[in-house]
Write a structure and sequence with these properties.
267 residues, TIM Barrel, nine-stranded parallel β-sheet
């Protein structure tokens, strides 16, 4: 059975469009506002929702997302509550594909088999576990593969071609190319370097490629959408959420940015 993620990329390709993947940290500023933000992002035309599970000791996240995770944890966000929120949304609106982004510890603590069952039942489509390289993912993937959850893999500028091939062979859903060396939201990617790497990866895989880490403006989104099948925007949304957390304009502000980015990608 074709996954919701694969169906989305197929549909976008048939329209000549690229995917906008929007990241938000679940529970920042609180889970109810996260729910409202996700609805707003869907209405603004976001194609895939990447929902961050807050963790106390992140390694791949820059300061903007780290601070969001700390705020979410203080407000009581947990993996169980996040899955409940996703399930509630799936029951009420036509939600785009959902990718859970996070670290292995909360999943392991929840229980791997239990997590795979619950995530599938809640309507999660894919997982991106930042600190779980392919060699160490077998225990989790036995459960998630059986449930039809796409296991999304990362490729970095420092990844060797041999390892790129290995990751691509085992990949599902799409491949996430990290456009910078470093953590999220801390540097601007170099278009030419990204272009070369994406061309190499595209030569040996048919999986869709998305580019993330460091893309924050409509102009950047437009430039990189020409090179890949989609782009990920994270820190720009999280920064805006922090700025308008207590404002009635929170959801309109986030939705407006998503709409501007999506429109720029379609120009």
């Amino acid at each position: 059975m074709t996954s919701r993620i694969a169906q989305t990329f197929q549909l976008l390709k048939s329209r000549g469009e690229k995917a906008l993947v929007a990241y938000v940290t679940a529970g920042d500023p609180d889970l109810e506002k996260t729910r409202q933000i996700l609805v707003g992002l869907k209405d603004a035309g976001v194609d895939i929702l990447e929902i961050g599970v807050p963790f106390s000791d992140p390694t791949a996240d820059g300061p903007v997302i780290q601070e969001a995770a700390q705020r979410a944890l203080k407000k009581g966000a947990t993996l169980a509550k996040i899955l409940d929120m996703i399930e509630g949304l799936r029951k009420t609106i036509d939600l785009p594909p959902v990718v859970l982004f996070g670290y292995y510890n909360p999943i392991y603590a929840y229980g791997i088999e239990r997590f795979a069952q619950r995530a599938k039942a809640a309507g999660v489509d894919g997982l991106l576990v930042v600190d779980l390289p392919p060699e160490e993912a077998g225990e989790l993937r036995r459960e998630t593969d059986a449930k039809g959850l796409d296991f999304i893999s990362l490729i970095a500028p420092t990844t060797s071609e041999e390892r790129m091939r290995q990751i691509a062979r085992q990949g599902q859903g799409f491949l996430y190319y990290i456009s910078i060396t470093g953590v999220t939201g801390t540097a601007k990617p170099d278009t030419e370097s990204v272009k070369k790497d994406l061309a190499r990866i595209q030569s040996f895989t048919d999986l869709p490629l998305v580019v993330g880490f460091g893309i924050s403006t409509p102009e950047q989104a437009r430039a990189f959408s020409f090179l890949a099948d989609g782009i990920v925007i994270g820190s720009a949304f999280v920064r805006l959420i922090a700025e308008f957390a207590e404002s009635p304009d929170l959801v309109p502000q986030v939705s407006a940015l998503a709409r501007k980015i999506k429109e720029a990608m379609e120009e």
